[in-house]
Amino acid sequence: MKTSANVLEFEALRQLLGRYISSPLGRRELEKIAPHADGARLADDLAEAGEAVEYLRAATRPQPAARGAAIRIDFSGLPDVEPAVHKLRIEGASLDPKEIFDLFLLLDRAADAKSLLTATAERFPRLGRRAQTIGDFRTLLKDLEGKILPDGTVADHASVALGRLRRDIERQKKAIQESLERFLRAHREEGVLQEEFVTIRNERFVVPIIAGSGASWMA
Predict the structure, then answer these.
(1) For position 41, what pLDDT does the model report?
(2) What is the DSSP letter of 150?
(3) How far apart are alpha carbons 61 and 63 in whole angstroms?
(4) Radius of gyration for the alpha carbons in the chain, expressed in angstroms and rounded
(5) Distance (Å, rounded) from C-alpha 111 to C-alpha 145?
(6) Rounded Cα gap, residues 107 and 128, in angstroms
(7) Res. 40: pLDDT tops 50
(8) Is the distance from CB of 193 to CB of 210 less than 8 angstroms?
């Protein structure tokens, strides 16, 4: 039995569009699209798609630097935040720093898209209305800007207490290392140790090999 999807070769078209979608979020949205027979909705969908095509064309042409200029929206490199969002729905659950950073990256891109499309609403009214459905996260993003680094670590300046704690830890590590080196220097002079340098490996102090033992100490 032939359906509209078969006649339109819809799955082939979906696969063709999928070649231009790089993010997991975009691919999931593509999977949700299905043919329908609502005439009014079809007209709106086609009109919005037409605006989007014209916006992309305008964004690739030279334009004067002025408000309302079509600027290409960057969707590349968007992380898959769906697992993190599902986790937030669980009472008492928390996100690790990398998950938080990915969420902020997505919100930042969303804020950019909202700003760019809103600025062109006079030329592209349907895209402008679409932009109004995007939340405004600028205040949140400004408050947390730079506090979580791309590798998922929390920056020292994320809070006064955290910065002070990390400085205290570094001072204590340096004091321990200097104390160990003084101890080793004294024993090297007695011919017990081959060298007097202390290194830190994986947050552990590594002291040099004891003469004749073939082993090193780790603390």
Answers:
(1) 92
(2) T
(3) 6
(4) 29
(5) 14
(6) 18
(7) yes
(8) yes
Residue 148: beta bridge partners? 154
Amino acid found at 104: F
CB–CB of 23/78 below 8 Å?
Answer: yes
- Cβ proximity of 87 and 93 under 8 Å: yes
Closest by CA position to 72, among listed 88, 93, 58: 58
At residue 154, what is the residue type?
V
- Mark out the alpha helices in the chain (DSSP H runs): 4-7, 10-18, 24-32, 39-60, 82-88, 97-119, 125-131, 138-144, 160-189
Separation CA 193–CA 211 (nearest Å): 5
**Segment 94-138, tens digit of pLDDT:** 888 888 888 888 888 898 999 999 999 999 999 999 999 998 888
Cβ of 69: how many Cβ atoms within 10 Å? 14
Among candidate residues 68, 67, 98, 62, the one with its CA nearest the CA of residue 83: 98
Return phi, psi of residue 199, to 5°.
-120, 165
Query: What's the CA gap between 199 and 207, in Å, rounded?
Result: 7
Residue 207 has pLDDT above 70, yes or no: no
Q: Give the pLDDT confidence score for residue 154 in this predicted structure.
A: 67
